[in-house]
Write a structure and sequence with these properties.
This protein is of the alpha/beta class. It is built from twelve helices and 14 strands. It is elongated, with a radius of gyration of 25 Å. InterPro entries: Calcineurin-like_PHP, Metallo-depent_PP-like, Metallophosphoesterase_sf.
Length: 403
Amino acid sequence: MVALLLSPVYILLNVYAVRRILQWVSAFPLSAAAGRWCKGLLIVLYALPAVSPALAYALPASAFQWWVGRISAAWLGCLFYLLLLLAVADGSAWGIRRHFRGRWDAARKNRLLRRGGALCAAALIAVCGYGFWHAQEITVVQRPVSVWKTCPAQKSLRIALISDLHFGYSVGLRQAQRMVDTVNAQNPDLICIAGDVFDNAYSAIEDPARLSEILSGFRSPYGTYACYGNHDVSERLLAGFSFGGAGKVSEQRMDAILTDAGIHLLRDETVLVDGKFYLSGRRDRTKPGVSEERLDAETLLSGVDRNLPVFVLDHQPADLAALAQAGADLVLSGHTHNGQLFPGNLLIQPFCENPYGVLQKGEMTSVVTSGAGVWGPAMRVGTNCEVVVVEVSFLPSGLQATG
């Protein structure tokens, strides 16, 4: 439904972009024939990626459809910055026209169009090129956390947190290997994957058997655990938005990839790890698995011994007050991508209690990662793909009262 509602908006935005591009071409001194050929060529070159989202949706699963899906994802990122730059250019042009007032003529207008268009084109290439390159890097972020409980035979715990891997059109085997290598280099005691392992379509995964083999390379004494997120379902997408509504089900073939890799998938389950701490994995709050209802926080943690540390994997950083009340000490989340593309990292701030980083909620700590992968275009601008190392220090509760 969302895709249908946004389709006219998408068409209008592309018409706006094409009109501005053609105005730029018209500002150059070309012959009538050359101008027509140039404009026609630009329209065709623009239309090819512009129709790729609809084409990727309509085509049956195949190698060709996979490549169209990759092009579609990349195009949407480029279109975002193209529209942003055009809006800035239009605003600047309006200000310049007001400045010149009566001295505004065709020659000055064409000169402004040529220079402004060239500047926008250069900026678009630079920003998008950087975004594609930067998305291939994985940074490591340290997050020290104190838990005011004792853990048997354990003074501290090193947790490697990753989320939003989004294996599909934009994240493939090479990025998967980078994730595994980066995580293992941190020598974690425990590895946690906080949802959105996949990107909605099993057919979009580059090589499922090879992906499972790569993920089996995670190494930690207490193992690797995961919960699912809102994208870990099988559904058709148009330009990244859900299309069709009903029939969204958890994909058993996706489950098999994790099982074969030795990754423990938790669906509203709580396990006691080596008799030392509890780890709970929640169903996603918007697509809980998908037919079952998600347990509330109190029911989920009703059987834990609150004298031991309680960790929760919850893809979306919500329901924090309820989790704190239910006895959670540490909640590990993702989902927000920290906005992924600037200025998204600024715009998400008012909409999330903890959009990124660390938030203290009473005695409970919420840690949110920007994710190790990407949603949609394989681009990162103003944010990072990351592995978060959560350094948990266990402290006797008496120290909290005196300290």
